[in-house]
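Person: Please work through this fold.
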Amino acid sequence: MALNQHSYCSYFALLFLFLAFAYSHSPFLSYEALKSGQFTGRSLLQAKKSCPVDMEGQNYTILTSKCKGPKYPAALCCEALLEFCCGFVDELNDMTNNCAETMFSYINLYGQYPPGLFANQCKEGKDGLSCDNALKAQAEKAQIKASSAASSLLTPRRLPSLALASTFILYLLL
């Protein structure tokens, strides 16, 4: 019985952390962040903080595989941009760092996109581009991966070791 209460408490704590994270960040990619990808020839002479996200190490394939020229379809390009950006939207919206500029320099390097493509094509509401759908899609993908990983743990070959590990953990708890 104590194990069931412990399990419920663990699930509740995980749910609480997930909800707290989901509501703690901005659900929109701001237009300011999008415009930082446009090179206007002028820049402010103010130093910005380094980006806390490793933009060089990101996988830009989601963009380059969906957003292709010469027509650059707006629906596909904007969907791919959101799928890529929404994981670190807070950092991109923070205009005190250079995340958005750095990201767009890599996007343009790998995709060879025309300057301002995303800022000109991707328009939504007054707050910017909504990340709600992109975040839901990422959560669904993560859930599918987790369920497939869990089912791979329960293969007949692994059941004895899983049972042994569970017994050992129960022994430690008691």
About this structure: Residues 12-25 have pLDDT under 50 and may be disordered. Residues 2-24 form the longest helix (23 residues).
